[in-house]
């Protein structure tokens, strides 16, 4: 899809993040390796604001930029109004249109081990479930809609269906691949693979999204950027996945299906 083929009136940018009442205490315990604000119940809050700002700037949505560039406290207060029950965890989807009108969709999300929200070097919980990680059978052309998180997501939906992932509750992911055969990202996660005793994640030049947990992992030295060809993925190899709602997830590559 080209930028011109998506109507500015219908296109929206978004970012999904976790609200968790236990996060602030856990973040304060790991303050040396978790970004500010430590006392917020919103996972990687500042990174989500930055991501939305970058998307609005790319599309030259000046009204959206003006709203998004408010101070972080005001941004958090805006999110607070969407939380039905602050004693429970929620999956939030912050959606902003080209006029700067924003809304928050809040849905219940399951309780998780809060250590999963921190970089994997801080935890080695063997009881974490292992997601099935497929490789898309078709390629996706990088564009503004793969670089930035927008509601134009048909290509990701199609990739998930091709991999047989029919529900958001499935413990499964599909890796999106560009026409050069390079892994771009997962349909809802950032992937990390172990190579030469170091975790690596695809560079943005491969066409994927600058995810919030990806930024966190890179800032802490958990991983390096490196091009990953689909041909070098090994059937059965273990990997990590991450996103702004679930944190870091264990995965296992299923290269043939």
TrEMBL record:
GO molecular function, one term: catalytic activity
InterPro entries: Aminotrans_IV, Aminotransferase-like, BCAT-like_C, BCAT-like_N, Class-IV_PLP-Dep_Aminotrnsfr
Database matches in Gene3D superfamilies: 3.30.470.10, D-amino Acid Aminotransferase, subunit A, domain 2
GO biological process terms held by the UniProt record: carboxylic acid biosynthetic process
Domain of life: Eukaryota
PANTHER family in the record: AMINO-ACID AMINOTRANSFERASE (PTHR42743), AMINODEOXYCHORISMATE LYASE (PTHR42743:SF11)
Similarity field: Belongs to the class-IV pyridoxal-phosphate-dependent aminotransferase family.
Protein name: Aminodeoxychorismate lyase
């Amino acid at each position: 899809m080209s930028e011109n083929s998506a109507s500015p009136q219908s296109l929206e940018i978004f970012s999904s993040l976790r609200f968790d009442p236990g996060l602030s205490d856990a973040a304060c315990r790991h303050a040396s390796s978790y970004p500010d604000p430590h006392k917020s119940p919103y996972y990687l809050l500042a990174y989500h604001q930055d991501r939305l700002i970058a998307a609005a700037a790319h599309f030259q949505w000046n009204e959206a930029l003006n709203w998004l560039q408010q101070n972080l406290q005001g941004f958090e207060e805006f999110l607070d109004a969407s939380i039905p029950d602050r004693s429970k965890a929620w999956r939030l989807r912050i959606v902003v249109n080209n006029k700067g009108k924003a809304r928050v969709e809040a849905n219940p999300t399951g309780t998780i081990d809060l250590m999963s929200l921190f970089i994997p070097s801080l935890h080695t919980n063997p009881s974490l479930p292992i997601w099935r990680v497929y490789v898309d059978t078709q390629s996706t052309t990088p564009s503004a809609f793969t670089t930035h998180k927008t509601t134009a997501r048909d290509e990701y939906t199609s990739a998930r269906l091709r991999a047989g992932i029919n529900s958001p509750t499935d413990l499964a992911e599909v890796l999106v691949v560009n026409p050069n055969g390079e892994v771009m990202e997962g349909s809802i996660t950032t992937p990390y693979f172990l190579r030469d005793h170091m975790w690596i994640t695809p560079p943005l030049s491969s066409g994927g999204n600058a995810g919030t947990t990806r930024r966190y992992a890179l800032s802490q030295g958990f991983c390096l950027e490196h091009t990953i060809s689909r041909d070098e993925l090994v059937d059965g190899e273990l990997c990590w996945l991450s996103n702004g709602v679930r944190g870091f997830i264990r995965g296992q590559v299923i290269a043939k299906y």
